[in-house]
Design a protein that fits this description.
Elements: H1 3-12, E1 22-27, E2 36-37, E3 40-41, H2 42-49, E4 50-52, E5 59-65, E6 75-82, E7 86-91, H3 97-109, E8 110-111, E9 123-124, H4 127-130, E10 132-140, E11 149-164, E12 178-184, E13 187-192, E14 208-216, E15 219-225, E16 231-237, H5 238-243, H6 271-283
Antiparallel strand pairs: 1-10, 2-3, 4-7, 5-6, 7-12, 8-9, 10-11, 11-12, 11-13, 14-15, 15-16
């Protein structure tokens, strides 16, 4: 395979993936995601302040069988999926919002009644009261947004923070304070999407609309020019095509009122007659 064909194949898949483009969301956590924090919601705060995440690994527990064939030793076979813990890192503002939220979530698991006495009793809640769903989406830049293409999403079920790492504080050069939390979860599943299309499945990634025509009632065939120079055709409904940005219709300058029309000399009119008529019309 030539390098040009290889690069063309990569371009047809939307280019190379960049590791600094992702979205993390908490769903069902013991705190209303719509809770306002300044001018944004908690859900938006988590999304923007999370600066370190991982796509979960895949592991397998295996057993072994001996004597499957004469002269052959132990043979491993898979029997259980293994889901290991996950680490998420967050930047902190001056109010330590994400640290307070993670502490709240952790303390919600272990209910000590809010007391501070030495003889306080701690009771653990049921898991369905504190566990949440964590969605980690790997995103790529699209035509209109830096997170418009979303090729894969990991959905972590029954997740909860089981450890909050120590936060180092020290004199020296100023750095953004960060907090890291460890999460356990029951299991995860994966949602795959086509990375060559944006999430609304209408505009090919990086493509430019170069033509359209009606192929049948209610359906329009669009021609898209991709970055690799290839032109593809895509059929969309009229309602979907209407949702796409269209150039504004050409504007026609309004016709000037009759009084603002230029006064011209009529055929057979003498210069003196024209000057007199022009003076009368301007006065009116």
């Amino acid at each position: 395979m030539s390098i040009n064909r290889f690069m063309s194949a990569i371009a047809s898949k939307g280019g190379m993936s960049l590791s600094n483009n992702f979205i993390v969301r908490f769903e069902g956590a013991p705190y209303d995601p719509n809770t306002p924090i300044g001018d944004v919601s908690l859900e938006e705060y988590v999304e923007f302040m999370c600066d370190e995440a991982q796509l979960p690994n895949i592991n397998t527990a295996t057993g072994s069988i001996n004597g499957l064939y004469t002269g052959l030793g132990n043979i491993d076979y898979p029997h259980t999926k293994v889901f290991t813990e996950l680490q998420l890192g967050f930047m902190l503002d001056a109010d330590l919002t994400m640290l307070k939220y993670l502490n709240y979530w952790y303390n919600y698991i272990f209910d000590d009644g809010g007391g501070t006495g030495e003889d306080r009793v701690t009771r653990v809640k049921y898991r369905n009261q504190y566990a949440a769903t964590i969605k980690i989406t790997k995103t790529e830049t699209g035509p209109t947004s830096s997170t418009q293409r979303q090729p894969i999403t990991y959905v972590l079920e029954q997740a909860y923070p089981y450890a909050i790492d120590a936060i180092p504080l020290q004199f020296g050069s100023a750095q953004i304070t960060k907090v890291t939390a460890q999460f356990k979860y029951q299991r995860h599943y994966i949602i795959n999407k086509d990375t060559t299309n944006v999430k609304d499945s209408q505009i090919p990634a990086g493509g430019r609309l170069v033509g359209s025509r009606e192929v049948r009632p209610g359906v329009i065939e669009q021609e898209w020019l991709l970055p690799n120079g290839k032109v593809i055709k895509k059929e969309v409904s009229v309602s979907a095509a209407d949702a796409l940005p269209t150039p504004p219709p050409p504007t026609v300058p309004p016709k000037a009122p009759e009084s603002q029309q230029p006064i011209v000399r009529r055929p057979g009119e003498s210069p003196r007659e024209f000057a007199q008529r022009r003076s009368r019309e301007l006065q009116n």
